[in-house]
Design goal:
It is a single chain. It is built from two helices and five strands. By secondary structure, the protein is an alpha+beta fold. The chain has a single domain, classed as HIT family, subunit A (2-Layer Sandwich), CATH 3.30.428. The termini are far apart. It binds adenosine monophosphate.
């Protein structure tokens, strides 16, 4: 199993898991780019990125969980950003669909 996020889901490598249900996992990013930097990803390897996602149903839950966590972390009033990267120009480093939830400070433009 090469995919890092699949290994996290399978508890083969440790991660700071802050939310988990049957379909999704949320962990702290190991290399945070903001005071609050969470990664939300489907447990199943549905796709390498948003570009090859076949069934978009999961997106509804991703955004619902992101909003819920933004409230939980108290960043919903100050602001936050949800990002997904696809490909090298976007700087994607992990080929497993995932979303960054960033906030807790003024983010760069
Ligand atoms: P991306 O650049 O959009 O592919 O994002 C991948 C993110 O995964 C990066 O921000 C990394 O810091 C993060 N990352 C890589 N390995 C781990 C890990 N083992 N636990 C938590 N975050 C990780």
């Amino acid at each position: 199993m090469k995919c890092i996020f699949c290994q996290i889901t399978a508890h083969k490598i440790p991660a700071d898991v802050i939310f988990e249900n049957e379909r999704l996992m949320v962990v702290y990013d190991i290399n945070p780019k903001a005071k609050s930097h969470l990664l939300i990803f489907p447990k199943a390897h549905l796709s390498d990125s948003i570009d090859d996602l076949k069934d978009e149903k999961i997106l509804e839950e991703v955004f619902a969980v992101a909003r819920q966590l933004a409230k939980q972390y108290g960043i919903h009033k100050t602001g936050y950003r949800i990002i997904t990267n696809h490909g090298k120009d976007a700087g994607q480093t992990v080929s497993h669909l995932h979303f960054h939830l960033l906030g807790g400070e003024r983010l760069s433009d």
